[in-house]
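Support request, please re-run this one:
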Amino acid sequence: MNGHLGLIHAIIPATVDIRVSIPEDHPSTRNLGSERTGSGTVVDPEGYILTVNYVVTGASSITVTVAEGEEYPGEIVTQDLDSGLALLKIPARGLPFLKPATEPAALGQASLIVASSGNNERKVSGGYVTSLEPYDGHWEYMLDQTVRVTAVNPGFGGGTLANFKAEMLGVVSLNLADVGKFSLAIPIRYYLDQEQAFKQRSLVSQKPWLGFYPHLLAGHVVVGGVTEGSPADRQGLKEGDIILDVEKTQIRSRRQLYQELWKKRPGERICLRVLRNETSIELNLIGADRRNRYGS
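Re-run finished. Output below.
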């Protein structure tokens, strides 16, 4: 027990609370709200903090509270629209920080989630890694690997997933309803593989954004909605369309759909064939820069 307390006390000082204000007219407020709370992890003593992108998208102001209670203004250094991570910076040095895990997460591995639940409050939950499977979301988002754990996220999104060496395994992103897979974390390698690009603000997505919400239904990928003013909207994709193929490749899953779409780059033509009202229709869409998703 004392060993576990020592472990927790080694992680908590590197965990921060994040409060964000977003202008009411920003497109992201429709789904994410204009006042957001999140958690983050100090990954560099020079004030760099890793969190999830959805917490800070569209931010007009960011307030970061460190474990000792001091508040700092935060700025967004980089938002990685592919992994869903965001790197922030605060004007502080010599901060307690977490090192990345020397080994990636492994099935059955014991792990801890540490997250903010208020300015000066941190909560902890423990569990085991039960899956490293990929993930695809309906908002044109996919990871080739995740870390899913039995621990329930005890606080706000963006918190720390750590091993029992007080090393960082990932950033807690989503709450899941799957038995034994209650929390999903983005593996730390998505940051480490491009750490310098994150810090130098030079990270750019090469994946096109269309602005639609695909869902899997009865073995088919169906358009569940289209973002107003998006490339998909302007170029004729409709809610209820069944996507039959992309560039003549038959589509049977959302993951396969994304894989085919992302063979193209922003600005390139993508040929889709859809089924609408029992009629096959061919659409030519031009994908946009993913930063256009929320007007950023």
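The longest strand covers residues 121-131. Residues 47 and 251 are 44 Å apart (CA to CA).
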